[in-house]
Write the structure tokens for this entry.
Amino acid sequence: MTKTKVRTRIAPSPTGIPHIGTARQALFDYLLAKKYKGKFILRIEDTDQKRFVPGSIEAMYKINEFLGHTPDEGPYFQTKRLKFYKKYAKQLIKNGTAYEDEGAIRIKMPKTGYTTWKDLIQGKISIPNEEVDDKVLLKSDGIPTYHLAVVIDDHLMEISHVIRGAEWIVSTPVHLLLYQALGWTPPIFMHTPLILGPDKAKLGKRHGAKNVLQYKDEGYLPEAINNFLLYLGFSYKDNSDILSMKEMIKIFNENKISKSNAIFDIQKLDYFNSKWIKKLNISDLTKRLTPFIDKNWQKNLSKIIPLVKDRLTKLSEINNLIDFFFKFSTPTQENLLANSQASPAITLSWLNTVKDNLKDLKDFQPESIHELLKKAQGLSDLSPRQAFMSLRLAVTGKIVTPPLFDCIAILGKKETLSRLQKSVTLLK
RNA sequence: GGCCCCGUCGUCUAGCGGUUUAGGACACCAGGUUUUCAUCCUGGAGAUCAUGGGUUCAAAUCCCAUCGGGGUCACCA
């Protein structure tokens, strides 16, 4: 148990829409803060105006909201805190830790010895000081670089745990030296392993790697994304438990984060997504499905959605699953016969029998339809498969649909008979 | 290339010197349920624990070397 108050931060630079690695960082920050009843802070590291990409700050807010990583403080902007950086840069020159070099202020790294620290994830890390060059702290335009700004902000904002990607390991000696020179206690460092693409290259830097908003647009649930991200570099039971945020907070353990890089496996994300979709209740699922469903397809949704729930991996798949309820394209004769595996005459006779049966059915419910047509099929020369597959084609135009009698009941008597008539005409 | 980190089934991982013929999950394959698909259930295949040396009565587990992968060497973060 940590003695000091836990305060974590996610500190993105607004240079594009955050990718999945940033989201995992934020999740770990969030879980750690919440586990110890601490605070999670958002800070925008906007010191490189040349690389600024409009919209990326808004995207960050959106992603935090989507994934439920709600900051307790912030956003803070580094460009609004320049006075602090200048003040401490001066102090560093005065005490000999930094020097001015053609307008920029650089740190004076020792040329001998090692900088060693205990990283909560990586364990003991030791880096020869001569490997670290005199990094620029304050650029000649008066704007700080990352190295100066993080140290000052993390200290001033009382950050207890710095969770960041492993790419920062080699510049940690710079930060440590700054803490020492300023007389401050450094935070606990946690350098997370990287998330790699299927080609084993760092995910964020790869061309074509999707950002978090794209996953949202494809119909991945925030719960599924968080769940998936947790198990990338962290292990709990068999890494397949469906966990809510609350449960994640409970089981998260900052001492058990893996050291090795992890490959992003979309199939695992799909697994969590389909599991989470099954877990949602119908009204919740309907609400989330709404943005994906064709505006004109609203009728009977409360009956249709329960039928497709178990067939959904991503929310965006919904339209392909339910389109036949709203539009009908007559099957080809070839398709119809292939599925009845009977002559045109026998198939025609079977579909006519169905039509006659359904026409007089008063209680147009799945159970009644089932009972009626099962009896009719028994009297026919067709096997259940032959009979109902051809009927499925005749009524929905598709080979794959939810349970047939449920579909027929939802379509209603009038629509079903009309479609049946169209298919019968085909065979004549 | 220098430096730093990592290396258990395709993937995420359990494993912390003997209980391991290395366990689970995803994916894959087969079977069952089912009028289709999916769900669900059962089973299967899949890792000589990167390789080679040590240490030890005993090593995936400790040590060394090699190889492989990643990171980093900007007035970018």
Observations:
- The CA atoms of residues 103 and 244 of chain A lie 52 Å apart.
- The mean pLDDT of chain A is 94.
- Chain A has four domains: 7-78+193-268, 81-192, 280-326, 333-427.
- Residues 280-326 of chain A form one domain.
